[in-house]
Structure formats: structure tokens, C-alpha cells
């Protein structure tokens, strides 16, 4: 997805929210794309045409406000017209404290939010139409600040471990993460899974896959052997197997099928942002 633009969270949300983003895209190009697994949970407010989820049961219309939880396979969402949406990009440990729901990636593709969120989505649609995305994002942040953290959660150990996973691109040893959390490996895994619905090892794989995607978008011709070395895969074949397990395509097929990013790659600011955002100093 080509997010445009990206907004930083207010200080109250900064530890648990990576960013807010807005998207406008024509129906034809949007419907060619897929949501590949990544390390964040999206809380999407649809302010444009109806969205439909492709599922084993056929096309299912999505509510205006929904959660795209952690996925392990591509997700296909189709727009019935011009696509406009705003999203809050959460770290997975923040779902319980901010949304007061569980997000189990093994059983749920998309989670519809409650009636308060649906009414808010209707309000946000009007704000976008009459006052623009900037004001809509401000209202979104204000709404979240009023409704989040209703119950007390002791997240510091999991939050610290999660950010370490991100900074290491998923390559830190699980035993080292547990030790830094002053927990045994089994205690750490139970607590991490309680908040994220996924084991730390499985989450590390998703984090690493997300960084791999970003590196290929910044430099589609980068050598896979070099990426395997940077991200700690045993060899190029291991990298390709891991990529295919999440994306249902090879890394080269992914790079070749992302022509919409060509213009962005010519933009120095975008490339600099991606390299800094994912620490891609080697991506060329």
C-alpha cells in the first residue's frame, strides 16, 4: 500500500503506536494490491467507498472501522470505488490496552470494531470530506486518547522486548530477550503471547520479513545473498523459502510486481525515510 502521508503519534500514544497514515487510491490500482504480513496491527477507518474482504466464503463487506491483526498470509481487500482510508498502526502488544480486544492472528482475518467506533468512523468521513486528512488525524488521535488505557496493564517488559525485536530486525535470540526481561524463557513467552497472541519467535520472523520487504522496495536489484547475510538467514535458499511462506511469491517476483513504487524510488526523501525507518543503510 502507498501510504500518504504519515503522521507521528501524540506523546501519550508514542510507546504503543508506530504512526498514523492516510491513503487515497483509485479503485483499479488498489484492487491489484494485497496486504502482505507485517509487524504492525492496523486500526483502519474507511472514509471512502465500501471495502470487501476476499475470503473462503466469498466477498464479505467490511465495517467502516476494523482491525487488520497480525497475518501470516497475504490478505486481499477490494474497494467498490475510490479508496480513502485512515489507519492507526499499532505495535501488537498495544491491542489490549488501547482497544480492549484480543487479536488472534491464527483464527481472525479482520476484526470489526464496536458501535462507538462505527459512529466515530461516520464522523471522520465527514471531517475528511469537509476539512481534510490533517484535521481528521487530529480527531482520530483525540478519540483514541479518550478511549485507551481504561484498564491497567503492566507492559514495560513486553514493550521493551518488542522494541528490541524491531531494532534488531528480528535477529535477537529469544533467550537474550527473556534474560533482559528478567524472566525465564517460558515465562517470557507466556507473557508476550498474552498481549500479542503470537510467540516472540513467530513475531521475530514477521519483523524480519517486513524489513526484507522494505529493502527490496528501496532497491529491487539488491543481491539476495547480501540480504540473507544482513538478516541472518542461513543462505539465499532459506531467505526465499521464508519469504514465500509469508508472501506466496518469491522475493524477485515481489520486487518485479511493485511498479507503483517506481516513482517513489526516484524520490530521495522517500528513500531516505525508508532507510532510516527500517535502518536500511546497506540497501543502496
TrEMBL record:
Pfam families: DUF6597, HTH_18. InterPro entries: AraC_XylS_family_regulators (IPR050204), DUF6597 (IPR046532), Homeodomain-like_sf (IPR009057), HTH_AraC (IPR018060). Residues 154-257 form the HTH araC/xylS-type domain. The keyword Repressor does not apply. Keywords: DNA-binding, Transcription, Transcription regulation. GO terms for molecular function: DNA-binding transcription factor activity; sequence-specific DNA binding. This is HTH araC/xylS-type domain-containing protein. It comes from Reticulibacter mediterranei.
